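Hi Y.,

Following your request, here is the sequence exactly as I used it, all 381 residues.
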Amino acid sequence: MADIDHDQTLPLSIVGTLPPRSTRRKKLFALLGIAASALAGGYYLFADGDRVRTDNAYVNADVAQVTPQLAAPVAAVEVVNTQMVRKGDVLMRLDDSDARIALVRAEAEWQRVRRQFGQVLATGDALAAQVLEGDAAVRRAQSQVDVAAAAFAKARIDLDRRAKLADSGAISAEELTVARNAFAAAQGNLGQARAALAEAKAARTAAAGSRAANAALVEGTTVDTNPDVTAARAKLEQARLDLARTVVRAPIDGVVTNRQVQVGQRVAAGTPVMTVVPVDTLYVDANFKEGQLARVRVGQPVRLPTDLYGDKIVYHGRVMGLSGGTGSAFALIPAQNATGNWIKVVQRLPVRVALDRRELARHPLRVGLSTEAEIDVSGQG
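Below is the corresponding structure, written out as tokens. Let me know if you'd prefer a different format.
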């Protein structure tokens, strides 16, 4: 049976008033478009308006740069890239020959200054004895001066008496000469005794000074608190520390990456040789446009699908904080917006998002991977 055009079955008066079929179809599509726009607008106002999204987000971490603290040749490298390590695991070993020699030298110096301290104590005792001996020598010299002074006084009296008698002829010239010689000898002996006394006093003073100087080296200290011993002990501890530092250990738990060292290579102190990435404490830096951040606050929940796993795996995080400046503000050559050729560019501000460790354990990520970030800002007006 042939198809019948329904328009042809209608009375001619009605058919003449209906619009063409193509016009009705256009109107129908227009109504559907308006309805879809209204639905989309309503969704944005009531649902999507409470979320801000960006696909400019990347996995990041506070990585640990491994740098040797000594300059030495590399004796062994114990790890390879992608290897998981725990804090304290050995990463590499440096040639420790120089460090061992330095340790032996430091130990010898420490022992020497300890013995030197004991020697100073013994010298102090000896100097104290010398001071006592000097006191005795001074007393002996003083006695000799007294004896010499008495002999000198007697010789002078004898000489005066004989000189008076010689004038009257009571004594001979020879006897007078003897008296004069005795007086001169007594005078010489007195001078010699006085010189000996001065020498004894000087010796005692020198001994007392040496004793005081020696005592100043050890006064108020012991063998463990003496400054020289303490300095030597510090050098010994430094030598032990340098020897321990020839074994380079992992500073944190993580995965070894960017290894740049080989056996036999001489490394300088502070030169990065590898990186340890803490894969269990990763976070996401999401770069949102400045117009999206008005309602973003610390602690808000974040959904994070990744390019690695796709939409089937969604991570759940929290906003940790907002960066102190945009990326362009800290660029090596910052933009000079004061120039006449200025063009306004929408800026992006990094928002740091903490990831759930349990989700990271189930679905590991790596630094640099791309993600999307959707922040629920419904709690902020």
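The CA atoms of residues 29 and 121 lie 110 Å apart.

Thanks again,
Q.
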